[in-house]
Design goal:
Elements lengths: L1 H29 L9 E6 L7 H16 L4 E6 L7 H9 L4 E6 H4 L18 H7 L3 H14 L1 E17 L13 E4 L3 H10 L2 E4 L5 H6 L5 E4 L1 H6 L8 E17 H6 L2 H24 L1 H10 L3 E3 L4 H15 L2 H14 L1
Pfam family, one: DctP
Keywords: Signal
Protein name: TRAP-type C4-dicarboxylate transport system, periplasmic component
């Protein structure tokens, strides 16, 4: 197993190296003599498709960085996991490779466990709440720990995919309605425990297998954001989208701390500022399109369930905090947030 991982890591390094060489050759072939050539090239990987708003947001971030650094910093964005799987990419950037990755609190919590609270049930409810988290002392300590111990630089976590809801073939209005149902969710402990706390049996399954899984009744439903329903055509497999609003899905944009430190200080600041700006814009765009998607799904025959007992779900969600030992961490963050208001 160790030899396999080592081989995969070496292969990924070779791929990244070839991409960097290709970028340099392409630059020499296509850039005008008087145009600035990039001094710093960052390869940025994400698992979403090319049509997703996040991809367009990442391109906007890259363009703004290029403009503000007079072409000296170039971010090359790779969609659909073209550079590799998330976990492997993070391992490579930890070692100093000039790459970045879109990830979330669930995966980052593999390094700093308490960070998982950011993806816990009903932790925050608005994009504005997420933006304020960056200034909290505890969050800053976690970021420093990621940098010092693991070589992971957090550029931003202002990229919000939206509220996660429950998609099934029967309406879900209370935690009782989830009893006996197998609901697909990502495999990280915070996702699994959250679904279990809300009343269902969590099933770890790759997202690409959800459509056939619903068709074959291997699962009874899935928790996801609205964009996922239309993107994966899951309206063909389920009748109800129940708005449980159980998790506001926060994404992290991370890169190699070692490579980040090699950039001039002013470029470091630009990289962070524009990542935050593009993240907020993209998050608000996703939020604004929810009503349009509701209408689209209704026209395709789905029923949007909005009379959900959110108080009952909030109460049920507390169990996830208890099981994972996150109650004290959550309360501390709330206290810090209240002091800043």
């Amino acid at each position: 197993m160790k030899e396999t991982k080592k081989l995969l890591s070496m292969l990924l390094i070779l791929i990244i190296a070839s991409l960097l060489v290709s970028a340099c050759v392409k630059s020499k072939e296509t850039v005008k003599p008087d145009a600035p050539k990039p001094k710093y090239v960052i390869l940025f990987n994400h698992a979403l498709s090319e049509s997703e708003p996040f991809h367009q947001g990442f391109l906007k971030w890259a363009q703004r960085v290029k403009e503000r650094t007079n072409g000296e910093v170039e971010i090359q964005v790779f969609h659909s996991g073209q550079l590799g799987v998330e976990e492997d990419i993070i391992e490579q950037l930890k070692q100093g490779a000039p790459i970045g990755q879109n990830t979330d609190a669930a995966r980052i919590s593999m390094y700093v466990p308490a960070i998982a609270v950011l993806n816990a049930p009903y932790f925050v409810e608005t994009i504005e709440d997420v933006a304020k988290l960056r200034e909290l002392p505890t969050i800053k300590l976690w970021e420093k720990e990621l940098e010092d111990k693991y070589g992971i630089k957090v550029l931003s976590f202002c990229w919000v995919q939206g509220m996660r809801h429950i998609l099934t073939n029967r309406p879900i209005k209370t935690p009782e309605d989830l009893k006996g149902l197998c609901i697909r969710t990502p495999g990280a402990p915070i996702w699994q425990q959250s679904i279990r706390a809300l009343g269902a049996a969590p099933v770890a399954m790759p997202f690409g297998e959800v459509y056939p899984g619903m068709q074959q009744k291997a699962i009874d439903g899935v928790d996801l954001v609205y964009r996922n329903v239309t993107g994966a055509k899951l309206f063909e497999t389920a009748k109800y989208m129940s708005e449980t609003n159980h998790i506001l899905h926060i994404n992290f944009e991370v890169m190699s701390k070692k490579y980040f430190d090699s950039l001039p200080p002013e470029y470091q600041q630009i990289l962070i500022e524009e990542c935050n700006n593009a993240g907020m814009e993209t998050s608000k765009k996703l939020e604004q399109e929810v009503e349009t998607i509701r209408i689209e799904l209704t026209e395709k025959g789905m029923t949007i369930v909005q009379d959900v007992d959110l108080a009952a779900f909030r109460k049920a969600g507390e169990q996830a905090y208890k099981v994972l030992g996150l109650t004290e961490v959550r309360d501390k963050l709330y206290e810090e947030r209240n002091k800043q208001q």
